[in-house]
Amino acid sequence: MRYFRIKLLGDEGDRDRAVVDRRPPNLDGWDFCMAQGKPIGDKYPPDAQVQLRDRFPGIKLGDFVSNTVAYLISSARMMNVIKEHANVEIEYLPLTILNHRGRPQGTDYWIINPIGVTDCLDLEKSVILRGQETGEITFVEEYAFVGAKLEARPSILRVKETPWEYFVDEPTARAFHAARMTNIMVDVVPCSE
């Protein structure tokens, strides 16, 4: 069993790729939900938009949209692959991406919000950074999972210690590859037996 971590910055070698660096406005403080695996429900506006900023001049939108806000932003194609393989609760939230001038650049994009977190991190085999004062996990440099904690084989998951990261199972990752999804970069995560 293998899982794959989706890199939120996508293909960093592609300087033309668009990078979203802000959350949709008008969420009244509920914007954290999509980065933490909490449902946002009817608090999410159906006409949500984000505008690209000059800080990242690229405008090329791929199937996965690079971002610094810890969201899983996907094209409709990528969303459909995730839906096809989904065996966990997920919110699919529509998003329009505006170019640097405020005009629609991508109108069929989605924030994929897997609900909940999974306690599966192998604390001994992962490379973990902890805060000096509290000892809490602040960052995971290399992930390893405990396979026994993944018997349900979720197709997509967030890890309890870092809910802003997204992981997909091997069938979903293979479907991304078979469909030639663009701007999706992944790291393999080993699972102990």
Structure description:
This protein is mostly beta strands. The chain has one domain. Helix content is 12%, strand content 36%. It has three helices and 13 strands. The chain has a six-stranded mixed sheet. The protein starts with a strand and ends with a strand. 33% of the residues are buried. The mean pLDDT is 95.
Q: Which labels suit this protein?
A:
single chain; mainly beta; five-stranded mixed beta sheet; 193 residues
The averaged pLDDT comes out at 95
The tally of structural domains comes to 1
Distance between the termini: 8 Å
Main sheet: which strands, in order across?
A: 2-4-5-7-6-3
Please give the largest β-sheet: 6 strands, mixed
- Compute the CA-based radius of gyration: 17 Å
Task: Tell me the layout of helices and strands.
Elements: E1 2-6, E2 19-20, H1 33-36, E3 49-51, E4 64-67, E5 72-75, H2 76-85, E6 90-98, E7 104-114, E8 127-130, E9 137-142, E10 145-146, E11 156-159, E12 162-169, H3 170-178, E13 186-192
Parallel strand pairs: 2-4, 3-6, 10-13
Antiparallel strand pairs: 1-12, 1-13, 4-5, 5-7, 6-7, 8-9, 11-12
How would you concisely characterize the structure shown here?
This protein is mainly beta and 193 residues long.
